[in-house]
Amino acid sequence: MTDVSEIPGWLATLTELLSTADGVADLDARFLQFGRDVVGAPSVALYSLKPHSLSVQGVATYGVSDFFLSRYEELGRDLDPVLARVLETKLAADNHELMNDEQWRASPLYRQVLHLHSFDYILQIPVLCAGDIAGIAIFAGTARWQGRAQLRSAASAIGRIVGAALTTQRRIDSAERHRDQVVRALDLVDEAVVVTDARTGQRHHNRQATTLLETLGVTHFDDLLAERPRQDGVTTVDLPVSESDRGQLRLSVHSVLADDDPTTTITMLRLHTHGRCDIPEVYSHLLSRRELDVATLVVDGLHDIDIAQRLSISQHTAKQYLKSVYRKLGVGSRVDLVRLVFLRALEDSGE
User: Where do the domains of the chain lie, and which CATH numbers do they carry?
Assistant: First the structure.
């Protein structure tokens, strides 16, 4: 009769180990630690499988040589009757359920691969995420390994615990990857954008916003957001930053509450001129007529879509002209262009 007294402790330890994993790679390492130090298995592996195709996405192992692993992937996987049973039924299985010891040692899998480590016993457990197989947990050892029966009794629970932990980690990894992609995209945006999360107290400035606020010396950004949003969730503030007889340099602060999360505010900052501040001759002669038109409208604070409508061109064409302006004047954003033009205007006016 199988002694199952240790199983609750095993499962509690596994849950504790995996619940504090920091990413999928750390989860793999913690599972191997469980198999080695808690269960005492001679060999442990955790395979990650791609959805639908079930091809191998990654593998973490303990207790096998690289040569063994390579040979299993090259020859053994297609010969493995235990794996075939697991993939077919989505249930844990071991070789004792499929054949006796003599048949096992005579099987192609054992003769070509498993004999390298004398694996007389192998248990494979499906790792399920939302009902689909996302991985395979494997424990293997020789005939002398004493913990086989207990492990087999705990197999289904182990699979569920690993599956729940893996599902959580994949969701976290996906969310973090999406966040990083959004952050990179924001840094490529031509506009200065600030995202404020009132629930967590976190705020993200894209590269353009960071440069703009540092240049203007704005240290208390919340002062710009002090005005309460209108009923439609939109706030617009326009304030002077610098002034000369040629006009004003102004900062427009346009904030919008996110539709699906009123605790998140998206703020767009834009420098623009008010009054007469033409593109100085030192820059205008470098530009074509149409590029000069686009640059002038940008300095006036117009969006790409507004520029396109004003000049009767497509928005894509307006963007291309603006990129050409940036390249010729050696600037990287609207903020840089407006500052360049206004500061030159101050110099020309003798201020």
Answer: 7-177 (3.30.450.40), 189-348 (1.10.10.10)
Element containing residue 234 per DSSP (H, E)? strand 234-244
* 275 three-class SS: coil
Q: Are 76 and 112 in contact (CB under 8 A)?
A: yes
Residue 228 DSSP class: P
User: What digits encode the pLDDT tens for the residues 244-291?
Assistant: 555 567 778 888 888 788 888 888 888 776 655 567 778 888 889 898
For 142-175, the pLDDT digits (tens) are 988 888 888 999 999 999 999 999 999 988 988 8
* Tally of helices (H runs) and strands (E runs) in the chain: 14, 10
pTM of the model: 0.68
Q: Are 108 and 134 in contact (CB under 8 A)?
A: no
Helices 7-19 and 24-33, axial angle in degrees (round to 10): 160
- Phi and psi of 175, rounded to 5°? -65, -40
Task: State whether residue 22 is helix, strand or coil.
Answer: coil
Cα–Cα distance for residue pair 19/1, rounded to 1 Å: 32
What are the structure tokens assigned to 283, written together?
A: 């820059």
User: What's the per-residue H, E or C state across 3-57?
Assistant: CCCCHHHHHHHHHHHHHCCCCHHHHHHHHHHHHHHHHCCCEEEEEEECCCCCCEE
- Looking at residue 142, its amino acid is T
Closest of 176, 177, 165 to residue 28, by C-alpha: 165
Contact in structure between 217 and 243 (CB atoms under 8 Å): no
Q: How far apart are CA 252 and CA 243, in angstroms?
A: 15
Cβ–Cβ under 8 Å, residues 87 and 46 = no
**Selection from 8, 56, 17 nearest residue 36 by Cα:** 17
Residue type, 210: T
